[in-house]
């Protein structure tokens, strides 16, 4: 799958056209110029939005094609005595990425993502699956966070991105995070919250920049991986982690994106599938492997999208993109349009897994925020 080198498409509902009257849009009356986010106080911070950082190398297609398809790997359990600690950032440059990529930690985490993908293979979201008390508790937490959105009204402002009320939501979520986790952690793991809470709170976007992207989504997968490492969730839970937990997480993030106009954390239109997400395309393509009727080109069939988006993550992603982006699909989502020409879902799934490894887990601007402690160890 070849990443497009076009400039990232706008995620606006329409293009703003300056009417010349004080910078007002002739279409909607809104301002055509918006203030930039405040500079990050950390001078070593590499802005995720910097296009020069995100532009893929010319040989990017070859790199992805040469990369072996990531394989599933059972999660290595953490055994007592535990030494939980506040996780910290370790990745600062490309050398750190190289070290991370060759580590057992990276291989095991990526293997966990592959296991999640395999757990949902050829399954609809509504298919019966093992729903443990822990899974149900996590779903309940996500539903509670969705209610918080309903309870926190928008702040009056004219900015296209970044409603300040999101910071109120994020603060409330962060304050309640530990109590959420204590609802389902066994007593001997209560001290693990010092390590689990940072992954959890980083899963829902950045409160200072009011943005969200694949790095935050990866944090949510890392949080689930931590629970697997601790034995809190087990392999029989994996299908429900996708079809119940991740689906609720995705619904919550879409609600946050639309309600508070979160900025995409990165110029992902240059190479990516979506302005915000990656994992639902991996899980969604796995769902459709060996489907009798639906092929990758089926994303262009409106009847299929309308009838099956509630059962298949990949289709629901396409439907959501079409709601928030106007215009020709091949222009605003060139990568997804290219993928629709791949002959079968098995190739789509393996290609996306390779792309996730290269374009997310090997990118300094994304992984500079990733945390390491005693559960996810820096090796």
UniProtKB/TrEMBL annotation:
It holds the Pfam family PTPA. Keywords: Cytoplasm, Isomerase, Rotamase. Its EC number is 5.2.1.8. GO terms for cellular component: cytoplasm. Transmembrane segments: none annotated. InterPro entries: Phstyr_phstse_ac, PTPA_C_lid, PTPA_sf. GO terms for molecular function: peptidyl-prolyl cis-trans isomerase activity. It comes from the Eukaryota. It is found in: Cytoplasm. The keyword Isomerase applies. It catalyses: [protein]-peptidylproline (omega=180) = [protein]-peptidylproline (omega=0). PPIases accelerate the folding of proteins. It catalyzes the cis-trans isomerization of proline imidic peptide bonds in oligopeptides. Belongs to the PTPA-type PPIase family. This is Serine/threonine-protein phosphatase 2A activator. It comes from Solanum stoloniferum.
């Amino acid at each position: 799958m070849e990443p497009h080198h076009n400039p990232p498409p706008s995620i606006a509902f329409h293009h703003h056209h300056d009417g010349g009257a004080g910078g007002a849009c002739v279409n909607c009356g809104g301002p055509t110029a918006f203030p930039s986010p405040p500079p990050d106080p950390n001078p070593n911070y590499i802005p995720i939005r910097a296009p020069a950082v995100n532009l893929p190398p010319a040989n990017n297609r070859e790199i992805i094609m040469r990369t072996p398809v990531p394989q599933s790997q059972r999660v290595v359990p953490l055994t007592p005595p535990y030494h939980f600690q506040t996780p910290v950032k370790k990745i600062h440059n490309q050398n750190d990425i190289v070290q991370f990529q060759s580590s057992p930690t990276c291989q095991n985490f990526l293997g966990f993502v592959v296991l999640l993908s395999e757990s949902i293979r050829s399954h609809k979201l509504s298919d019966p699956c093992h729903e443990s008390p822990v899974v149900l508790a996590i779903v309940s937490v996500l539903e509670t966070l969705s209610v918080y959105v309903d309870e926190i009204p928008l702040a009056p402002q004219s900015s296209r991105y970044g409603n300040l009320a999101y910071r109120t939501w994020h603060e409330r979520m962060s304050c309640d995070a530990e109590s959420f986790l204590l609802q389902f952690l066994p007593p001997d793991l209560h001290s693990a919250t010092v390590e689990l809470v940072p992954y959890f709170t980083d899963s829902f976007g950045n409160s200072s920049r009011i943005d969200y992207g694949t790095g935050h989504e990866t944090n949510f997968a890392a949080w689930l991986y931590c629970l697997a490492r601790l034995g809190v969730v087990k392999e029989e839970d994996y299908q429900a982690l996708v079809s119940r937990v991740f689906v609720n997480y995705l619904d919550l993030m879409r609600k946050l994106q639309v309600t508070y106009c979160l900025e995409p954390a990165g110029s992902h239109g240059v190479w990516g599938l979506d302005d915000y997400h990656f994992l639902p395309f991996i899980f969604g393509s796995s769902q459709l492997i060996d489907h009798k009727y639906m092929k990758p080109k089926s994303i262009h069939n409106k009847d299929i999208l309308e009838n099956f988006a509630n059962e298949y993550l990949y289709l629901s992603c396409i439907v959501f993109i079409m709601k928030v982006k106007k215009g020709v699909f091949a222009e605003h989502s060139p990568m997804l349009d290219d993928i629709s020409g791949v002959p079968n879902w098995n190739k789509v799934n393996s290609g996306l897994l390779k792309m996730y490894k290269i374009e997310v887990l090997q990118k300094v601007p994304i992984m500079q925020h990733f945390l390491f402690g005693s559960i996810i160890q820096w090796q």
